[in-house]
Design brief:
The protein has 422 residues and is α/β, with parallel strands linked by helices. Helix content is 37%, strand content 23%. It has twelve helices and 15 strands.
């Protein structure tokens, strides 16, 4: 790559309104802060179509250059994808580093990745992004081979870079294939055990990780910033009807998520594409929530998860005036959406109730008579059944009326019991 100017943390943001569509300026500011930059000035404008050389016009380039000098900025962040030549031309004209929207998202992903798999996926996405940046224009493209006995066409630095990047991409893909095989085996074991998988999906910063912690008692990182969660986390969760599910927290989606990221994170997103139910977490307080819902559904379609049943979770109702926790139902009476606050916990019991309804099993109701020495069976009843009534008789026996899934009732073989309903 060509030598880039030293970059700083003070950033000039560039946001154009294009007739072919536009991104959200507020979202760019959040992306910049999540990457560790300090937005000091915003340059806005309007164009019918991007300029082929600079994306912005020459007059706007001068305006950006003046803003860099006035605010002593060291980096310019564009709220749009740039072509490799546009990025190079802008850096040459402005004298500071220029990063487009896709590069900014990739940088945040690199900052957030913690696990071995996550780091590999980010590196793969970065290399694929970098490979599109290998264009002519470096000063070190001379032949590497020369001299007596070695004269010939040789290999340029550009060709070497491409070859090395290609080899590294193949290595990472091979490692990720092994990780995906392990994930596939784990999913197979869960299906064999008939344990349902529920994946949290939603726009970035909708509150998925906070809700995940609320439901599972986990302590995964949750913060008011974009892409706070990158690596997937799975936890077992027991519902009020005593059935068990596996809850998966996944990476947040965003408008026009770079294709290289969707491809690189295929194995992570597969937790969503192979789930039994998607909890679509929505920021109920966001003004553009309908747009973010559409964006999430678009990404779900890209990864083949658009046919999986959804339960919409309208989160952050504590920020809405007069909003109360509730369950909205569809025409057949099934839960369709739950209104709650993951931060305060209001409505989380309603979500458990909705999940219990959606994953209801055909339980049988039994009256069981337990002798005092059958304490081990009592413990299993508490673990696998729902106790509706219980009383102690004069002879010390316990009489319990329980509901239990028949497939878990084998341990009751030695218990005196009668079926009340099935």
């Amino acid at each position: 790559m060509f030598d880039r100017p030293d970059s700083g943390e003070r950033a000039i943001l560039v946001h154009l309104i294009l007739h072919s569509g536009q991104e959200d300026l507020l979202e760019l500011k959040e992306l910049a802060k999540s990457a560790g930059a300090e937005p000091v000035h915003v340059v806005t404008g309007s164009r019918k179509n991007p300029d082929p050389k600079y994306f912005v016009g020459t007059g706007k380039v001068e305006e950006i250059k003046q803003a860099i000098a006035d605010h002593e900025a060291g980096i310019v962040l564009f709220n749009h994808p740039l072509t490799p030549s546009q990025e190079r031309n802008l850096e040459a004209a402005l004298g500071v580093r220029v990063v487009d929207r896709n590069g900014l998202i990739l940088d945040i992903f690199a900052l957030r990745a913690q696990t071995f798999e996550g780091k590999l996926q980010v590196e793969l996405a970065q290399l694929k992004h970098l490979s599109t940046r290998l264009v002519r224009g470096w000063t070190h493209l001379e032949r590497q081979k020369g001299g007596i006995g070695l004269r010939g066409p040789g290999e340029t630095q550009l060709e070497t870079d491409r070859r090395l990047i290609g080899e590294r991409i193949k290595q990472i893909q091979a490692r990720l294939a092994k990780v995906e095989k392990q994930r596939h085996q784990s999913r197979g074991k869960r299906k064999k055990a008939e344990i349902a998988t529920v994946s949290l999906v939603g726009y970035t910063n909708a509150g998925k990780s906070t809700l995940f912690n609320r439901l599972t008692g986990a302590n995964i990182y949750a913060a008011d910033q974009l892409f706070a969660t990158l690596d997937p986390t799975l936890r077992n969760c027991r519902l009020p009807n005593n059935s068990e599910i596996v809850l998966a927290d996944t990476v947040g989606f965003i408008r026009h998520l770079p294709h290289e990221l969707v491809a690189a994170f295929k194995s992570t997103l597969q937790e969503a594409s192979e789930a039994d139910l998607l909890l679509h977490v929505i920021d109920a307080h966001a003004e553009d929530r309908e747009d973010t819902i559409a964006e999430v559904n678009q990404v779900l379609q890209e990864i083949g998860a658009d046919k999986i049943p959804q339960l919409e979770i309208y989160n952050k109702i504590d920020l809405l005036d007069g909003a109360r926790p509730r369950i909205d139902r569809d025409a057949s009476g099934r839960p369709a959406r739950v209104w709650l606050s993951a931060m305060g916990g209001e409505g989380s019991d309603l979500l458990f109730q909705a999940l219990a309804e959606l994953f209801a099993v055909n339980k049988i109701r039994l009256r069981c008579h337990l002798r005092p020495e059958q304490g081990d069976i009592r413990a299993k009843i508490h673990a696998y059944a729902t106790i509706l009534e219980q009383q102690i008789e004069e002879d010390g026996q316990s009489v319990l009326i329980i509901e239990i899934d028949p497939k878990y009732s084998g341990f009751l073989a030695a218990v005196s019991k009668e079926v009340l309903s099935s």
